[in-house]
Write a structure and sequence with these properties.
The protein is mainly α and 386 residues long. 66% of the residues lie in helices and 2% in strands. Helix 6 packs parallel to helix 14.
Amino acid sequence: MTVELDTDGIRLVGGLLLGAAFGALVQARHFCIMGAVADLVLFGSARRLRVWLLAIATAVLGTQLLAAVELVPLGESGHLASRLAVGPAVLGGLLFGFGMVLAGGCASRTLVRAAAGSLKAWIVLLVMGLAALTAQLGLLAPAHGALRELTSLPLAGDAEAQALWRPLSALGLEPGPARLVGAVLVAGALAAFVLVDGRLRASRADLGTGTALGLLVVAGWLLTGWLAADPFEPTAPASLSYVAPVGQSLLLLATGGASGTFGPALVLGTLLGAAAAAPRAGGFRLEGFASSGDLLRHLAGGALMGVGGVLAMGCTIGQGLTGLSTLAATALLATLAILAGAAWALRFLETGRLLPRVVDVRRPRPGAGASARGTPWRAAARGDIS
């Protein structure tokens, strides 16, 4: 018996499969972009950051090839809007980056932790999803719309005017070759930075993780932009992202309806894949809040991630992988802001100050000779962030 799927069915099944593969991979390899940022800021190690950069390089090259052969209409995706959303990208990125540190992981990592039994993660997901809906459809939606209207720059040209390969086209190259040259330059530069690390070159596991993550993003574009394309009812192509889809999933549970099937299917698939991989990745472990302060920190982190992720139009995966794969300038702004917000939050947790303190260099600070590597936050980051 043959079962034929319509476009919604393809998005549903494809989202489940992509999510399961992503969840299993992240669970098995303990991949976390927040952990990569913490490694760099707190310990000076760029190894996990290089794995992320390898994923970006793979995603950029694969996605731009799909667009070059006209399999995926990238210009119709939300990442390549005709207006450069500077304000939402920067403010949303800062909020999301700060929030993910308070919550102990980004949106995708929180899903993976929830699948392994973390009650903390389930609470963060609930708060993040509700905050995302509030910013997208609820009380904060008017302010969100006003910010986007007032701080976005109109761009002249076609649907991909903000693509980072456009300057090459302005120099005289045709759009097709300009796209490919831009993709090769970006992916090549990132890959060169990654492979300069001899330890990472020797690690098949790290190389495989970065490459597989990038290919999952490419598969998402191929699924939504080609396999599930409907010429009569066209929908914008999309790939991996988690903040808005968590909100869509809550809306689906509460009302029985959602704006699409791909996002909720991706969320459910990620949970199932991460749960399936959990026994071999450390097992299931119930994790509760250590104190009221711990609870408040996670609640604040979830709220900031939800609002920030909607403003920035994505998270560390939605913009930091999927968005960057389109070579959208907005995605680059949002990703840099996420990194800045995360670094800011890491310093806040370490020092207890939101703003840096002005130090009189003529007078030695008390305890200046003591190493900061022994602080509780650094110890927690070394052991827990994964």
